Every structure is written in C-alpha cells, then in structure tokens.
Amino acid sequence: MPHLKASAMRDMTVDEIQVRVAELREEMFNLRFRNTMKQLDNPLKIRESRREMARLLTVLREKERVVVKGEEKP
C-alpha cells in the first residue's frame, strides 16, 4: 500500500487503521532484518515506514479521544 497523507488517514475507519498498523509493524520487522543482513537496497524505507506508522497511531489516538469525550468534530 502506498504511503498516505494524514488527511487520507483521517478518512479511514478505526479497523482499517489498525490493520494498516499491523501491516507496517510486520513490514518494519522485515526491513530491519534485511538491513542487518545487508540485503536492503534503500534503508530510508525504514524511516518512511516508521513515520507512516506514527501518523496512523496519532490519527487513531485522535479518534479514540473523540469517542471517549463523547463529542463529535464537525
């Protein structure tokens, strides 16, 4: 899946975000493993994946806070 912008992430459901985070965690494990074995062509993919996961987790946390407060943003 290509990298998403934060605005596109906010349009995703909570379940979709959780699935994407799980995919990224697995991808990051594989990237780190390949990097230690010197088989990774572009080590910057690790940084990109880490940042995308951080964005997803931030959006997920925002959605959880809205649900806990019981208020909906316009």
User: Could you give the order of the helices and strands?
Assistant: HHH
| Count of helix runs | 3
CATH class: Mainly Alpha
Q: Would you identify the CATH architecture? A: Orthogonal Bundle
List unreliable stretches of 5+ residues: none
Provide the structure class: mainly alpha
- The averaged pLDDT comes out at 89
Number of strands: 0
Distance between the termini: 29 Å
Q: Beta fraction of the residues?
A: under 5%
Helix content: over 70%
Give me the CATH fold name. Helix Hairpins
The major β-sheet equals: none
How would you portray this structure in words?
This protein has 74 residues and is mainly α. The protein has one domain: Helix Hairpins (Orthogonal Bundle), CATH 1.10.287.310. It contains three helices and no strands. It has helices at 6-10, 14-36, 44-69. The longest helix is centred in the last third of the chain and has 26 residues, at 44-69. The radius of gyration is 15 Å and the shape is elongated. The mean pLDDT is 89.
